[in-house]
Specification:
disordered N terminus; alpha/beta; 2 domains; 14 strands
């Protein structure tokens, strides 16, 4: 009994294993762990940088100088792939902005060629345009994942809506629209006479969205665009099943309808012979234009080319922007000689010499003599100076001279280039000039109204430089000259005088011409362009650049080496950087344009959609709310 008790006393009882809840105190999670648990798991950002870079490269290749337009159809596909996953990857928007900035800097690099002072403007514009890329993706993600808009609807609507905003914000920049990559596909771009160039951008973005929607989910795992084990239903943008079939058929139907419309509209054209024009193209970089010693050389060259063109009996001869180097002086009514003398920019100038120069200007007489000798009317780009009681206004102008009555009218440029021709808000905030490299004499004044010139049986409207790239301005010019009975514009053709000598034969010259030709389709109005250094052209109402009847190579050494066409027959590239003259009869267009009447109703609707989706981003996520 004692032994038994002793055994029981000395026997070690078994230990109980502690549990977290019972024997060990619980550990409070750290702040870092709480934040990490709440933070969503994101896929790595390498693919975002890759896809953004691919879109930037494809877009650049689609535009000039390469001009590989077919790549425009797939250029947005990599960017659209970043829209499909519900959960964005790391650094996605930074990568998208970097890609947009890379494209903008390279595409717009021609801006820096004009002058060293244009470097800040080039960089500033690129920084601004790059913002549209992440905004496009962000709004598309809201539309697809929060508002449940189909990808093939969200992408083209938002892209076109942003292009429309870009045409108006900060005075507008209507270059490098997605639809411009398809300028060579003449049937496709005919839809522009209903919805503008924006309609072509819509179709291209629509097809890109359809292609992106067909990419299988397995590709997202390979690209690591979504975290492992992600809910497949989170990708609501994949095109598949019965709904996907409807979307694909709808996209193809839109594409087919646009092509059929283009074919029908082209067959409706009945071009009639209009005025026979001679386009005079000098080849002077802007550095020589501003050299007073070169003024005579510039004049003699244009005079020589005019004499060569006169042999082919043109009705109208056109010189490029500011290529008549002596300014046109104009004194306002009631301004006295004493008031005029006080406007001298340099005190050393003799007052009487200054006043006589304004009162006895010989420029109108010289221009009238030129027109009479040529036996043709003339449109010349010139600087116009208007002296008022207190100041002198400087205008970039086009004057119209007739052989029978001399100088009859003048058009002053309406749409000035920001930081190229004026400083915004300078009057309200004069200190802004101190932030720019420009002097006190920088800038020109804005014209006050639209002008139409008349000669023979033709009415034509002048526009200057980049004005041919602004859709709403060209519409305004044409709609300012309307027949009250028919409601149709009375303008038979547009005359654009341009100086692209700033850009040294870069891709700007090609892209400027491409952008301008969309104005002809939109309004069904032909255009003639006389451009210093090129590319001068006659464009018909279908947006086709017409090879002129006569092409005069002013640089040719002999007849054998002379170029006979505005394009290289081997490469198809337009000639640039040469002295030349083109003579052609303008093909007048018999068709009317809904876009000319209705304007940007389509793009404006897309812009309203952008605003609606932006507001939608402030409302709760419907998918998350349903899941809860």
């Amino acid at each position: 009994m004692t032994v038994e008790l002793m055994t029981q006393e000395t026997e070690t009882p078994p230990r109980r294993q502690p549990t977290p809840s019972a024997s060990a105190p619980s550990r409070e999670p750290s702040v870092h762990e709480i934040i990490s648990a709440a933070r969503p798991v994101r896929a790595p950002g390498r693919s975002a940088w890759l896809l953004s870079g691919m879109t930037a490269i494809l877009l650049w290749c689609s535009f000039m100088p390469l001009g590989w337009g077919p790549l425009g159809w797939i250029s947005l596909v990599p960017l659209i792939l970043l829209i499909r996953p519900q959960q964005r990857c790391r650094w996605m928007y930074q990568a998208i902005y970097a890609g947009g900035l890379g494209f903008s800097l390279v595409a717009l690099q021609w801006m820096r060629l004009g002058d060293q002072t244009m470097y800040p403007a080039w960089i500033a514009l690129s920084v601004y345009l790059a913002l549209y890329f992440p905004v496009f993706v962000a709004l598309s993600r809201v539309a697809v994942h929060r508002i449940r808009v189909p990808l093939v609807v969200a992408v083209p609507v938002i892209w076109v809506g942003l292009e429309w905003f870009r045409a108006y914000l900060l005075t507008g920049f209507s270059w490098y629209y997605l639809g411009h990559t398809q300028y060579f596909w003449t049937e496709l771009i005919q839809i522009s006479d209903i919805v503008g160039a924006y309609g072509v951008s819509f179709v291209v973005a629509l097809i890109a969205a359809c292609l992106a929607g067909l990419v299988p989910r397995s590709m997202f795992e390979r690209l690591k665009l979504q975290v492992p084990g992600a809910d497949p239903q989170a990708d609501g943008a994949q095109i598949g099943g019965a709904t996907g079939t409807i979307q694909i058929v709808s996209c193809l139907a839109v594409f087919a309808c646009v092509l059929i419309y283009g074919i029908v509209r082209r067959n409706q054209a009945d071009f009639q012979d209009g005025a026979r024009v001679a386009l005079i193209q000098g080849n002077f970089p802007s550095s020589t234009k501003h050299d007073p010693n070169e003024a005579v050389t510039i004049f003699r060259t244009h005079e020589m080319l005019t004499g060569m063109a006169v042999q082919h009996q043109p009705d109208i001869i056109i010189w490029p922007e500011t290529m008549y180097r002596w300014p046109l002086y104009e004194v306002a009514d009631g301004v006295t000689d004493e008031e005029l003398a006080k406007l001298k920019p340099v005190p050393e100038i003799d007052s009487q010499v200054w006043v006589d120069a304004w009162r006895e200007s010989e420029v109108p007489e010289i221009l009238a003599d030129m027109s009479q000798q040529a036996g043709a009317a003339m449109v010349l780009g010139i600087d116009a100076l208007h002296a008022g009681p207190k100041n002198i206004d400087h205008f970039n102008s086009a004057v119209f001279v007739r052989p029978d009555v001399g100088l009859t009218d003048r058009y002053d440029k309406l749409h000035r280039v920001i930081f190229g021709e004026y400083i915004p808000l300078e009057k309200e905030m004069p200190w802004l000039r101190s932030l720019t490299p420009f002097g006190e004499s920088f800038g020109i004044q804005k014209g006050s109204h639209v002008v139409a010139f008349e000669y023979g049986s033709w009415t034509f409207a002048p526009i200057i430089c980049f004005e041919d790239s602004v859709p709403q301005l060209v519409r305004h010019v044409l709609n300012s000259n309307v027949d009250e009975e028919t409601g149709q514009s009375t303008v038979d053709f547009l005359v654009n005088v341009t100086n692209d000598g700033w850009f040294h034969e870069s891709s700007e010259l090609d892209q400027h011409l491409i952008t301008a030709l969309f104005r002809c389709v939109e309004t069904r109005t032909p255009m003639v362009r006389a451009v210093n250094t090129g590319i001068s052209a006659v464009i018909d109402g279908d947006g086709v650049v017409v090879d002129p009847e006569v092409f005069i190579d002013g640089d040719a050494v002999d007849a054998e080496s002379a170029r006979t066409s505005m394009a290289d027959p081997e490469t198809g590239r337009w000639h640039k950087g040469l002295n030349a003259a083109l003579v052609e009869t303008i093909p007048l267009d018999n068709r009317t344009s809904l876009y000319l009447r209705g304007g940007d109703w389509f793009a404006g609707t897309c812009g309203f959609g952008v605003l609606w989706i932006t507001l939608g981003s402030f409302f709760p996520n419907r998918r998350k709310k349903a899941a809860a």
